[in-house]
Design goal:
The protein is mainly β and 224 residues long. The protein folds into two domains: 52 residues, no CATH class; 168 residues, Hexapeptide repeat proteins (UDP N-Acetylglucosamine Acyltransferase, domain 1), CATH 2.160.10. The protein contains two helices and 24 strands. The strands form four sheets. It has a nine-stranded mixed beta sheet with strand order 1-4-7-10-13-18-21-23-24.
């Protein structure tokens, strides 16, 4: 009986869901009969409008959203000075504490069905960050589409930013816990990057890469 009440309650309140304050409040009320954290993921597809936690912070006026998007607790989506857009495809999940920020012409595009686990950092300044569809990103991963120059005679805090073209991550890639992806990198479709790796150069599609810096150790088609 209570389960049926909870479903009807959620369907009513999720009619008003959205990234604004009212929409996030409605999502919070809709989730009263659901457990926290992953337990509220199903709410994202109740009305196709997506779920936006009341504890999320969305300060971005160029945010494009597909349907069934899940924005978890303490997620921050932030537009800094001259930042470009953020696009989240259908079924994208951003879990607790993930930060997406754009500034100085950088932009972020995340494809359909990609899941980003807690406490990831996606920082697009100067260059773009593009993440394909069906990508699985473990907790504590970081992506930076820029670097600081290191010219002598200039304090580090005043060094200009530069980019080598940003970051492109292909479709159905799997990144383990704590992977760092630096500017100028392309990770090919279907690749796997082991936990704790730092990716500083391109990884071909279908590869398994590990280490600091990350190196290809095997191809997935060699395993099976």
């Amino acid at each position: 009986m209570m389960e049926g009440v909870g479903r009807r309650w959620a369907r009513f309140w999720m009619r008003f869901s959205g990234p604004g304050r009212v929409g996030r409040f409605a999502c919070g009320v809709a989730g009263l009969f659901h457990p926290p954290f992953y337990g509220r993921v199903p709410l994202a597809s109740v009305r196709h409008r997506g779920y936006f936690s009341p504890k999320a912070t969305i300060h971005h006026d160029s945010l494009e959203l597909g349907g069934d998007v899940f924005i978890g607790d303490e997620v921050l989506i932030y537009r800094d000075h001259e930042g470009g857009g953020v696009t989240l495809g259908t079924g994208v999940h951003l879990h607790r504490g993930t930060v997406i920020q754009t500034g100085a012409g950088g932009r972020v595009w995340i494809g359909e069905g990609t899941h980003i686990q807690p406490r990831c950092q996606i920082s697009a300044y100067k260059g773009r960050i593009e993440i394909g569809y069906g990508v699985e990103i473990a907790p504590n991963c970081s992506f930076y589409s820029y670097d600081h120059e290191m010219k002598p005679g200039i304090p580090i805090g005043r060094q200009p930013l530069r980019s080598r073209g940003g970051i492109v991550i292909g479709n159905e890639v799997w990144l383990g816990v704590g992977v760092i992806v630096l500017d100028g990198v392309h990770i090919g479709d279907g690749s796997v990057v082991g936990a704790g790796s730092v990716v500083t150069s391109d990884i071909p599609e279908g590869s398994i890469a590990v280490g600091v810096p990350a190196r290809v150790v095997k191809r997935r088609d060699e395993i099976y």
